[in-house]
Amino acid sequence: MELHVVINGRKDLADQLYQQLRSAIESGRLAAGAQLPPSRLLAQQLGISRKTVSDTYALLTYDNLLIGKIGRGTFVNARAVKAERKQAAQDLACAANLEKWQNLPWPLRHPSLESTARYEFIGGATRRNQFPQEEWRRCTQEALRRMAEHGGFYSQPEGLPALRSAIAGHVAFSRGVVCTEHDIVICNGAQQALDLIARVVLEPGSLVAMEDPGYSPARMLFSAQGATVIGVPVDEQGLQVALIPDGVRLIYVTPSHQFPLGMPMSQARREALLQRAQQLGAIVIEDDYDCEFRYEGRPTDSLQSLDSHGVVAYVGTFSKTMLPQLRLGYGVLPPAIIGAVVRAKHLTDCHTSTLAQWALAKFISDGCLLKHIRRCHTVYAGRRERILQRLDGDLSPWLQAIPSTAGFHMAALCKVPVNLPLLLERAKQAGIGLYSLDGFFNDTPVRSGLFIGFGAIETLDIDPALDQVRDILRQIA
Questions:
Q1: Cα-trace Rg, the chain
Q2: Residue 273 banded pLDDT, cuts 50, 70, 90
Q3: Domains plus CATH for the chain?
Q4: 43: Cβ–Cβ under 8 A, 6 or more apart, which residues?
Q5: Which residues fall within 8 angstroms of residue 68, CB to CB, at 6 or more apart?
Q6: Distances in Å between the alpha carbon of 398 and those of 373, 384, 392, 419, 420?
Q7: Any idea what DSSP says for residue 35?
């Protein structure tokens, strides 16, 4: 690779070379330890004499910017990079908008590997040792072979036909979703699916209705796109449909496992929601984020399967089912919006990684996904049962579980006043990751309690962790 130096004319050649190399070193473009080309080679590249280059190297060495190593060459000397004043945010025309984004909270942000607690009750996370590494490695190797068969072109924004066909079969079997591969768009996680749908449905000032409490990243995403988000209260039957106001364009719900409280939406509410959406001309986003895992009661079909008018956009993810780092999700979209969403996807990032898509297509078609879900279901059922036993036992003076039949998190409300910030801080000091429900409420009054995930904690760690939580509650009560 050639060193980027530009020589203009035939005057002051040594000074031009000196100034450009010195600037590159002081700015850090030439990093400490980087080797410069031999003087003869650089002279040939620039069309100047070797003596000019040698003299410049010597002068920079005298200035302690370069160092010569006998038998090896000339290198940039280790020294502090000269600090240059960069434009501050307040100096820019977009300062107000930058401040708005800078001040946004980071709800549900997962800890780094270095800061992960010994006992982790965060929601939406899984244990790495549950992931079927060998099956996925075999599918990835097959994906590499499939990619080698194709030309070096970008892929389709809607996703590979093989993966969309596999997903269509999977969601029809497991969730009763009515679709073909032509109704599906592959995304980088469910969050991108929400973003794409909002991009094509909403305008600044549009009204969005969503559950309150609800999934705060969705609320913030809709608000960031200029929409006015209206929180609609939930009760034991789910979203209170009668409280959805006129003028709403988009309705976001989690009907199978309400986020974060956990109750499913009743059949009557589902039918009322579809009727209300048709009256409003609104699109309903059904976020079915973790409902492959059901522990009791009859399985419920998706809201999309009841939709005869084409108003439901069904959003799913493999981040919860398999591994968050995969960032693979999808939308099963009604005909009215799928064309616009595909174009928005093309403009946003062209397409999702084809390597991961080919691997997942094989993973599903080979039956590995269903086998993985069955394996995890047994593990999660045991963890859920143990946590419920503790909440009904020695933790019952302070906490009460909200009935939930699916997923791998639950909510527990405080039965008596508890200093939750202090509880969370004491737990953190003890190596326990506990999380409050507070941040999921927007317009409705906050109901104090805990958001308890059981995907990322080992079954044998539950009792030692909850023993410490009980002891902390006794201390601060």
A1: 29
A2: very high
A3: 13-76 (1.10.10.10), 119-126+371-476 (3.90.1150.10), 131-367 (3.40.640.10)
A4: 49, 50, 52, 53
A5: 57, 61, 74, 75
A6: 33, 19, 10, 11, 11
A7: B
In the chain, how long is the greatest CA-to-CA distance? 88
What's the half-sphere exposure (Cβ side, CA atoms, 13 Å) at 299? Answer: 10
How far apart CA 288 and CA 302 sit, in angstroms, is 8
Question: Which residues does 245 contact at the CB level (< 8 Å), separation at least 6?
Answer: 207, 209, 230
Q: Which residue has the tokens 């960031």?
A: 224
Residues in the chain: 477
State the Cα angle at 275 between 270 and 276, rounded to 5°.
95
Is 74 within 8 Å of 56 (Cβ atoms)? no
Contacts 24+ apart (CB under 8 A), 217-221: 217/107, 217/108, 217/191, 218/194, 218/252, 218/285, 218/287, 219/442, 220/104, 220/105, 220/107, 221/191, 221/194, 221/195
pLDDT per position as a tens digit, 390-441 = 999 999 999 999 988 888 899 999 999 999 999 999 999 999 999 999 999 9
Residues 6+ apart with CB under 8 A from 329: 186, 187, 188, 189, 190, 191, 192, 193, 315, 316, 317, 318, 319
Q: Where are the alpha helices (DSSP H) in 28-80?
A: 39-46, 50-62
114: burial class by Cβ within 10 Å (0-12, 13-18, 19+)? exposed
The answer to whether 48 and 10 have CB atoms below 8 angstroms apart is no
**pLDDT at residue 351 above 70?**
yes
Number of H helices, E strands in the chain: 14, 15
**248: phi then psi, degrees, rounded to nearest 5:** -75, 135
Which stretches within 247-315 are classed as H helix? 267-280
The pLDDT of residue 334 is above 60: yes
Give the integer Cα–Cα distance in Å for 296 and 428.
Answer: 33
Closest-CA residue to 352 (of 323, 329, 335): 329
Q: What pLDDT, in 10s, does the model give residues 178-219?
A: 999 999 999 999 999 999 999 999 999 999 999 999 999 999
Cis amide leading into 132 (omega within 30): no
**Structure tokens given for 311:** 């108003």
CA nearest 287: which of 198, 190, 185? 190
